[in-house]
Design goal:
It is a single chain. The chain is an alpha/beta fold. 44% of the residues lie in helices and 16% in strands. The protein has 15 helices and 13 strands. The two termini are 40 Å apart.
Length: 387
């Protein structure tokens, strides 16, 4: 039909440029070894960094809560009420992040959109790192505030841009760990600039929680700066092993967001079973810091294994980017790796800049040295074959 021709042309254009996307079907949980489209794969693409998605303690506790509370939440927490388990999760998050209070959103995306649109509006200003996640970008746009983009992790550029807009009320927002590069925000400088110029600081801890810091508490712990960030946002769908997003901070901040954040107010709450999985996941991170230490040791080992095979790899986080450049070549390497039993996602434009396509290796605490050595060997072979 004519009315679909434009969409079909655009899809064909994406295919011609190796930018067409399709979903990969899993026949098992997200664990270090998974069943992917009928093949056993060593999984190096999952954000379940501590391999908690299928943890027996989490599954058992979630099952009990499912029987007690049922499958659904019934509606918005402000309209139909909330469950005790939701409140317990928020108390657990606040204790874990050493804050007065916390609030859970349905996703990290909805958390960022809901926070930024509530805290900033017309006449305000948001300073945003150029490599921030899409959810931050969209939250900035939807807020109707003026948005100023500063160079990636460049605090001198940030300060120059703050000075160019003196006296404005606003927010500095940044990822804590950047999702495609695996590098860490310069929090000491960012927090100091926010305090000096009277701006709110907001850090997205999605890829930092459970990953960096001595006990996995994230960016603040990594720098020894607990309590320095005004708005600490994160997700429960990565190292925690469940689903949902969160924000924590002062009780004033949380009360304000409960009353002003539209993505919280007008969303049906996550199911009690999902909330239970989140709660148990955070408790396990708090009780078993050895999981975090093992993940951090795996990062060091894997980077060294890749370097020994001539593959450039640098990271202090669970994300190790392997830059390929050309989108088509990145896809060829990914498919060759799958044939050898290693699943890594190829990341392409618009997720990253044109011509900077990469394989995004995501490590788990449960990966063995044999897993990582096997990946490094296969990656060297496949990169040569893809030329």
């Amino acid at each position: 039909m004519e009315k679909w021709e434009r969409l079909e042309r655009e899809l064909e254009e994406l295919k011609s440029r190796s930018l067409f996307r399709r979903m990969t079907v899993f026949d098992s949980g997200q664990t270090a070894v998974a069943e992917v489209e009928g093949r056993r794969q060593h999984l190096f693409s999952s954000n379940s960094y501590l391999d908690l998605c299928c943890d027996p303690e989490i599954l058992a506790y979630t099952g009990r809560i499912l029987e007690e509370y049922g499958a659904g939440s019934g509606g918005s927490r402000l309209t139909t009420g909330t469950t005790r388990i939701h409140m317990e999760l928020e108390d657990t998050i606040a204790r874990f992040k050493k804050r007065e209070a916390a609030l859970v959103f349905n996703t990290g995306y909805m958390a960022n959109v809901g926070i930024l649109t509530a805290l900033a509006g017309k006449g305000d200003i948001i300073y945003s790192d150029e490599r921030n996640h899409a959810s931050i970008i969209d939250g900035c746009r939807l807020s109707r505030a003026d948005v100023v983009i500063y160079r990636h992790n460049d605090m001198d550029d940030l300060e120059a841009k703050i000075k160019a807009h003196p006296g404005r009320r606003g927010i500095i927002v940044s990822d804590g760990v950047f999702s495609m590069d695996g590098d860490i925000v310069d929090l000491p400088r960012l927090a100091e600039l926010a305090d000096r110029y009277g701006l709110l600081s907001m850090i997205d801890e999605a890829h930092a929680t459970g990953v960096i810091g001595a006990t996995g508490r994230g960016t603040e712990e990594y720098y020894g700066m607990e309590g320095s960030v005004d708005v600490l946002m994160g997700t429960l769908s990565k190292a925690v092993g469940g689903e949902g997003g969160f924000v924590c901070g002062s009780s004033t901040l949380i009360d304000y967001l409960i009353n002003k954040s539209r993505s919280f107010m007008f969303s049906t709450a996550l199911s009690p079973a999902t909330i239970a999985a989140d709660k148990k996941g955070i408790q396990l991170i708090m009780e078993q810091p050895q999981r975090v230490r093992q993940l951090q040791e795996n990062v060091r080992y894997c980077c060294q294994a890749l370097k020994e095979r001539g593959i450039e790899a640098h990271s202090e986080t669970a994300i190790i980017p392997i830059i390929i450049g050309d989108e088509g070549r990145a896809m060829r390497v990914m498919e060759l790796l799958k044939e050898r039993g290693y699943y890594i996602s190829a990341i392409r434009y618009p997720t990253v800049a044109r011509g900077s396509a990469r394989l995004r290796a995501a490590l788990m605490a449960s990966h063995t040295k044999e897993d990582m050595d096997g990946l490094a060997d296969a990656l060297r072979e496949c990169m040569e074959l893809a030329d």
